[in-house]
Amino acid sequence: MDDRKKDQSIQSHANFDGDSATGNRTQIRQDQQNQQPPQIDPSLADAQAVAALLGVDPNTGLSQAEAERRLAQYGPNELASAPPVPKWKKFLAQFKDPLVYLLLAATGISLIAWFIEKANAAPGAEGGEILPFDAIVIVLILIVNAVLGYIQESKAEEAVEALSQMTAPQTNVLRDGKIARINTVDVVPGDMVVLGEGDSIPADGRLLAAASLRVAEASLTGESVPVGKNVDTLAEAKALGDRANMVFNGTSVTQGTGRAIVTSTGMRTQVGKIADLLQATDDDDSPLQKEMNYVSKILGIAVCIIAAVVLVALALTEGFNDIHDVIDSLLLSVSLAVAAVPEGLAAILTVVLALGVRRMAEHHAIVKKLHSVETLGSASVICSDKTGTLTRNEMTVERVVTPSGEVQLTGTGYAPEGRMIAIPDAALSGSAASAAQVEAVATLAVGALANDGELRENTGAGDGSAASDITWEAVGDPTEVSLIVAARKVKADRKYANYTRIGEIPFTSDRKRMAVVAQDNADAGRLTVFAKGAPDVLLGYCSRIAVNGAVRPMTQGDRQQILAAVERLSAEAYRTLGQAYRPLGTASLADVPGVAINAAGHVVDIAEQSDVLENDLIWVGMVGIIDPPRTEVRDSVAEAHRAGIRTVMITGDHPLTAARIASDLGIIDATGAADLGSTVLTGTQLDELPDEAAFDNATRNISVYARVAPEHKLKIVESLQRQGNIVAMTGDGVNDAPAVKTADIGVAMGITGTEVTKQSAKMILADDNFSTIVEAVREGRGIFDNIRKFLRYLLSSNVGEVFTVFGGVMLAGFLGITQPGSQGVTVPLLATQLLWINLLTDAAPALAMGVDPSTDDVMARKPRKLTDRVIDGQMWGDIIFIGIIMAAVTLIGMDMHLAGGLFTDRSVDAVGHDAQMTEARTMGFTILVFAQMLNALCSRSHDQSVFVGLFANKWLWGAIALSTLLQLAVVYVPFLNTAFGTVPLSAGAWVECLGLAMIVLVASELRKCVLRAMHRR
Question: Which of 186, 199, 276, 385 is catalytic?
């Protein structure tokens, strides 16, 4: 076939098994992926026909040149991420805040006032300021805040991207007649993928060959048991989970080998369709974002009301006599807006959250969005999958039951480290216990021989001499690998070192057992059948039993005893597997009675002769296997409970297993584990609930769910949210993605999680550990506490400024700010002075409070409710009280330096009013700065004395020192005097400033004493 015909063939038929991807991310991706709809379903077509339509020889695969051409045509084999937001849009998004809108309005007003003043300046006069400095300063500050927010969010996104790039998956394909290992992203339609145990399937494909092939499709279909695969053409179209001749992207091989021809890659695969659908869902704001929007609106409305009241009052009392009165009124509005808005709030909040993101990353929690940090700290329910998160995801043989007794194996996971311990039994003699241990070794040897798993030893960066340099990898079915590990723990591997497998009767879901035939090279090649399977099934093929080194006929009593042991282990949540064997007494299968021989004199495939080989077996024992809980998780569950956080386990496992693990971890008590009906609900039982109210009642009381499907997870999350909970939901498979997306804080697994789930989540666990979630909750609560601290500080400072401006204007004549007979409005503090306070002297202490150590045990409190405000009534009380005190001492300090006031120093009478006003503003400006420095210390707690942990935060003291130096500079540096309208102060004036500022601390302490006294009652 020439290249042109190949292109036509591929163009028509490469996009099998699904529609072309919609909503592609770029025009290039559209050109690569928008193929013609498929003419046939590959599951309904013969494998050779599929290969022919894709233009590939199954025996040699694609040539490298052809593969490169197809890669250029169809694009990389990867899931398209969400449409990348342009950088300019990300930058402009930083301005989406009501407070920013208010400041922009203030900027506009300032510009209008400047233009009016310039336009109405008398001929030859200077016309006021050369440039609109107030407007310029405000805009510059907004730009700085936006740049800071953009940079910090970009860093968080880079951290997530770095996680996804930690390992580049690879795949074995047939190219130019040779097996080559390539990056999965380079797989193309028509590639021949070579599959083996433990491989991740890189794309959707039609099977051409399969040998005992089983695939774990839980990440796609939710099926918890690996699915058997074959090459047979389907007679009719079937559901995804029933297409036995197809393999799908994102699934993995647990057993056997196979070869498949790739029919769909990237977004054209089944996983790609799900990923595309998920991207249509919008993200909701976090509770903190909603609260900050609310606070912004409240401040904006408040300042508008205050400005309106002041302007109306001035219009009624004095009127607007000329254009200068209008300008003064507009500048008053600007001053009020600048005073009310904490300009540094957005930047400080961004930095504090970014620091929290960094600390969480150090604890293996990668947060994708800054505001998600606080959301997790507010979580009231953590819904967690069992496997891999609460447990180690490492199947472990813990019990071995033999005819002579029972033993226990120590050690967990895939490291072959542990020993055998006899379980005390008063009815057993010492010899019987010894016999039980010998039989246990034999049982594990049989299980390791009748096995398709592999335990790989990997050496790390060291020389391999240290134990820490060695890691163990399970290849194949985890249950089978657990038998190999157990056998190596007790040195049972020595018993089968001389055996060589010559044939296998594979496991199927119908047979529920498997067997191998192996020859003993140390015994003239004599053959033995080794079998394992479900104990109740395998017993039906056993006629003898090995007891204490001797083989005798199996009695009915033996069978009943074995079945009773199966029931007992199952009740303890163990998965049981029986082991048996049968010596064939010959070195040739052809000599075994009943074995079929074909016309050529060869033995027919033994997989078809199970009825001959799998009978008259000798029972040796059985094992109890469990996926052990993570040792650290029990303490984390207890810590979560102490913090008022409910832990919910959602698993597809058996109810008995779920109850056992939940009991071990403290999610339910031992009594609850014994009474499954009241503590565990299955997916079937959830489906039987009559209505939403019954469902909500069930989720309110039940914390363990077993045998659930993906849609059940989503319903459970939605039900918990209806009850007012902030829900964290973990997930790894594609089928978990909708529930993870719906949860208030979706948590994806960094190791076992699929790309689709990671994209849906707000946080990724780099270590897949439940304890990391609890640690993130602790960090989130600490961050939230610190946010409240600096909000209390910033807003009380801003309210103090507003009250100062408002009071100074309304009481101007009373305080001496305006002289008798004067007209117009005189603001007590200039807009530039207020900006200096908000952006420089306030910012450093507020930022230091963002890393303030906890003043109490954050995990000893109940979670916040959705209805709880970040700034609650108590905090508003703090803010208004301190704001009034600040305004009062500031205006008193100004009054002392103005003629005609209540507390006027008579020595100022000789100075002109303009000079008095400049000095008074400097006094008020400086008093307000130092009052806010002391307020920073007071704002660390609502009711705890400032002297408790006074020096715990060294950063705060450094910030106060920096702010003090900045204020000294603005008072004494000449060019700053000109810019900010200040003059140097005398030593006596400094004493007045500090004395008046101290009143804020004294008033705060008195109020806290009253609050503590009220709490003790």
Answer: 385
